[in-house]
Amino acid sequence: MELELTETQSLIQKTTREFVDRAILPVAAELDRSERFPKEILAELAKLGLMGVNLPVSLGGAEAGVVAYSLAMMEVARGCASTAVTMAVTNMVGEVIAKFGTEEQRSRYVPRLTSGEYVAGSFALSEPEAGSDPGGMRTTARQDGDSWVIDGQKQWITSGSHAGVFVVWARTGDVAAGTKAISCFLVEGGTPGLKVGKKEDKMGLRASDTVSLTFEGVRVPASALLGQLNGGFKIAMMALDGGRIGIASQALGIAGAALDEAVAYAKDRKQFGQPISAFQGIQWPLADSKTELDAARLLTLRAAWLKESGQPFSKEAAMAKVYASEAAGRVVDRCLQVHGGYGFVKEFPVERHYRDVRVTRIYEGTSEIQRVVIARSVLR
Ligand SMILES: Cc1cc2nc3c(=O)[nH]c(=O)nc-3n(C[C@H](O)[C@H](O)[C@H](O)COP(=O)(O)OP(=O)(O)OC[C@H]3O[C@@H](n4cnc5c(N)ncnc54)[C@H](O)[C@@H]3O)c2cc1C
To answer: Which of 212, 230, 248 is the endpoint of a domain?
Structure first.
């Protein structure tokens, strides 16, 4: 067993860390306050190879693997969770196209995502009536001559106002066929009939873009079908397995930042004539937080390593995601408490971390759905 990072992994971690310290941390609070989509930061991330960490160099990626991707995601989330989720979804979209796309689809879209020509990619699975159960989706795609025509609604789509390409799931057969009649399509931003709805007014991740989408007779060529006809549901599930490693890493990055800040604050803040770090009531939550984050990190890096080495990782990714997101929630809550009243105001970043971390228990499969995935495997 080897727990050391490779040279490439250390280099990606260090490069990302330096970039986050220099270019993201100084603006993170302002991005949150102004809800400004971080276009210029995303362009810089693309230049660093971070929009395709696990994608081949031939497609513009860094070809550094899944562990490196997880480490980079932790670093970016340490700086700005909104930037991190945008990066996560773009990496996921690039990977889906690289894995399931034809040569033409791969060469058309992936280099545009990795290079930053497309500021982001979007993953359009959820619908107003189909979240945890995407098999219940209502969006349809019907064949019309040489085209597909897509009609329906998608909900909660990250980067939906900015994406150059959307991976979109739609029903291509009878409702009775359930998940066996769902296909996946690539739709370019700006395609006629694709309408972007209002931006969600979110509790956290306020600089990320989350919108609804309406598809009104959106016509795409036959070549827009990604993977097999009626084989789209499997693509979604496989993509989400990998995506969960990204969200676990995001949760770790946010909570790691909160813990560093709480430690520094506890050493600095004095009450009863001594730093509050001298009180056992402050020390123990910090100790518990460090322990839980380390455990979450090991689960997450194991899932990343399994994916990278081509082994099954679905259960491990779900375990990493549920544990890391829930541990991160506990850690950020304790870190806010360490700040006392100052944790409750926007002057200290822990207030933002508290809001940002909450969604990691919800998207890319809620905690309950991760437990369904894990239990299915345990009871098999
Ligand atoms: C900020 C943000 C960004 C997002 N980005 C994207 C995106 O880019 N693309 C995309 O496709 N989606 C995206 N989502 C959607 C996200 O994945 C869904 O919100 C999530 O899957 C839950 O679906 P839902 O909100 O419809 O909740 P529901 O599915 O309605 O769930 C409600 C509650 O019921 C529970 N529940 C449901 N089924 C079960 C069950 N079988 N057993 C036990 N409990 C259950 C859930 O865990 C939850 O607690 C995003 C969401 C948010 C908030």
So the answer is: 230
